[in-house]
Design goal:
Length: about 160
């Protein structure tokens, strides 16, 4: 069992390479992906470059309601904001956390190990874009609280339901 001094020393260790949060978003059915990383320099993961961005992710509260997470990230270069404004369908989102100590190269660093990946599971909704930031809610792609497709049931859209 560690002594009090050993526990104190362990707790005071400086983390030199923290884990990094990578984010991708794209319009549904589009092959163009926009990538950002919560970091002060660009990084490479799986052969793709993630541009540096200030990013803040708010975790959900516990309870009986739908659990949403929100994200806000910088729109300094305006490229990400233009892409989000141009989207006409769902905006798919992917979050990846990489091991900050498992990198090769120096500029930009290349990361190899994903600790977790939400590929094909999240949609960005309620998007708000201004000159400085892009923000929105990250919701599960399969949201059981919303009907799919999001069209009111009518004879025009579902004629088979009105056949008697």
């Amino acid at each position: 069992m560690p002594t009090d001094q050993q526990n104190f020393d362990i707790a005071n260790e400086t983390i030199l390479d923290p884990n990094l949060l990578l984010m991708e978003f794209w319009q549904e059915f589009s092959s163009t992906r926009h990538r950002a990383v919560k970091n002060n320099e660009d990084v490479i993961y799986a052969g793709n470059t993630y541009v540096k961005a200030a990013m803040n992710v708010t975790l959900p509260n516990s309870g009986d309601t739908q659990h949403n997470t929100s994200v806000t990230f910088s729109n300094v270069t305006r490229d990400l904001g233009k892409a989000a404004l141009a989207a006409v369908g769902k905006i798919q989102c992917r979050l990846i956390q990489v091991d900050g100590t498992d990198f090769t190269g120096s500029n930009p660093r290349t990361y190899n190990t994903a600790l977790w990946d939400t590929d094909n599971m999240i949609v960005l909704s309620k998007v708000d874009i201004n000159t400085l930031t892009i923000s929105g809610d990250l919701v599960p792609k399969l949201d059981l609280l919303l009907p799919y497709p999001l069209v009111k049931t009518s004879a025009e859209f579902y004629p088979g339901l009105w056949l008697v």
